[in-house]
Every structure is written in C-alpha cells, then in structure tokens.
Amino acid sequence: MLETIKYLIGWPGPSGFGSKSTAEQVTEARGELRSITAIITGGTSGIGAETARVLASRGARVILPARSMKNAEETRDRIVTECPEAEIIVMKLDLSSLNSVANFVTRFHSLGFPLNLLINNAGKFAEKHAISEDGVEMTFATNYLGHFLLTKLLMKTMVETAEKTGIQGRIVNVTSAIHKWFTDDVISYLALISHNKSHFDATRAYSLSKLANVLHTTELATRLKQMDANVTVNCLHPGVVRTRLTRERDGFLTDLVFFLASKLLKTLPQASTLLTATKPPVPNWDPTQLKLQGYGPFPNSSFLRVQKLPLTNLITLNFELNFLGQRKRK
C-alpha cells in the first residue's frame, strides 16, 4: 500500500526518478545519444511519439514504422520542426500482418544500420471483433504476435551491434497491469476468439495480449542470459494515461472517468518509456518484478500465477512452428 502511494505521488525511487518524472528529465543525464539507433513501434502518437521526440532531440537515429505513412510523416515533420537536426526515418509496417513485419525487417536490414534499441510500444484495443490476414484475433495479432516476430527477426542485428559497439542493447516491451485480469488458458481462449466472435470480449482480449507480452519477455530474458548476449529485455507498465488507444471507447462515461481520475493520471511526457530504455546498464527482466517508470521494481503480484503457467515456451514455440512454419512452406 505504501509503495502504491509513493508511486501515485511521484516519490523518487532508487533510480532518482518517480512516476511524475518526464522523458526530458530521465534522458538529461545521458546527454547526447548520437551513437544510438532506435526502432519505436506506435511512434506516431501518444507515448510512442513522445519517446521518439525525446530520443531524436538527444541525437539518436529514430526509425518510425507505421501502418499509416501519412501519420508517420506528420510526426516526423513535427519533431524536425522542433529539432532540425533530428534523424527520423519513416517506414511502412502493419503489425497485424506477419508478411508486413517480415518486409519491414528486410527493408531495415537493407539500410545497413546498427540497432541498439527496440521499443515495442504499439498497442491496439479493438472494441469490435476482427481477424488478421493470418487468421488470428486482431488485438492479439497486433499487440503480441507482430511484436514477437519483429523482435525475433531483429535479434541477430541487435546482438551483433552490442558486440561491435560495447553498448548494451535494449528491448522494451510496453505492457499493462491489465495483464493480471486474464486468468483463463491462453491458447484455448485465443483459438476460441480467433474462430468465433460470439466469445469475444474486448477487455479480455486486450488483457490476454498483454499477458502474452509478459510471458514473451520472461522467455526471451532467459534465452538472452543463456546466450550471454549484451542485450537485455524488459517489460513495463507506463502508468495510466489517456492516449489514442482509447479512441474506440470515447463517450460520456469514458470522459467522466478520465476527468475524475485526472489527478492520478500521467501526462504523455511522464508516461514515456525512456527510463528503462536509456538508464545505465539494466539487468534482464525478472518476472518477480514489475517495472514502473521512474520508481524501480517492486513485487509483481501476478508472479506466482505466471510462474505456474508453462506458457512461455508454449506460446513461442506454437507460433514459431505453426504460423511461421506455414508461411515458409507457402
């Protein structure tokens, strides 16, 4: 209870920052980041756009993949207007499509850039049931499956970059405390909502996708440790902030809830993910901890449940063998 109160009022944690610290404050001590190349999904609005702005203003090369090139170009132009020397490259990417993810990675590799930082920030809360072109429920396809494949295909470049430069590579998966809300069998429910919309519930689907992010982070952290790679992966809950993610739930009730809770919400600058992305060397994700921006880790109450679920291997292997294997055979 005390830790929660400290978090809500922005009390500084072990890092020296609190939940009210902004991205500008977090990165100020790091100075210039001109040697860093970063990919930020969901970087055209909300938390992702603020993350992109601050990284670019510190000198990092920022890759902005987006489904809408128009939105990406507008975001780039806004940042360049503020920071004329910013290097921002926009590229096409639809995370709900495995083919689009593979094409994006091919184009990125063709540029010959290193890769130090991958921030998997993009998120979708689909109010209406939809299926991706790969036959997967759309929220799960976008929030988890696309990011899973993106990370897998970029991993070799990240490991090689860290070896050549000596700079620790970072993978940051933006998840949500809502992942604790999903208590059913992951694979069974995913199969159910991928074939029958009558069982679809938007909130359950979203929490499922966020739990998958946590499980993926846990499994990937284990593999990176086994590889002895100078790359770490962490997931975080950025706090509660009103972004475009809630645009499908706009209405009087939603507006009222956000108004009443406004004093407890984070602003976009406060919700940025840059503490985990840019602070001095960080260890790999520990599922006994939940990273909250600025305050540092504290016990994650969902750890015991996650620990009992043999799903980290199951999810990764299931999609790697079934979905990706099928695409390779086509």
Automatic annotation (TrEMBL):
Alphabetical UniProt keywords: Oxidoreductase
GO molecular function: oxidoreductase activity
Superkingdom to which the source organism belongs: Eukaryota
Pfam families, alphabetized: adh_short
InterPro entries (UniProt xref): NAD(P)-bd_dom_sf, SDR_fam
Assigned protein family: Belongs to the short-chain dehydrogenases/reductases (SDR) family.
Protein name from the UniProt record: Short-chain dehydrogenase TIC 32, chloroplastic-like
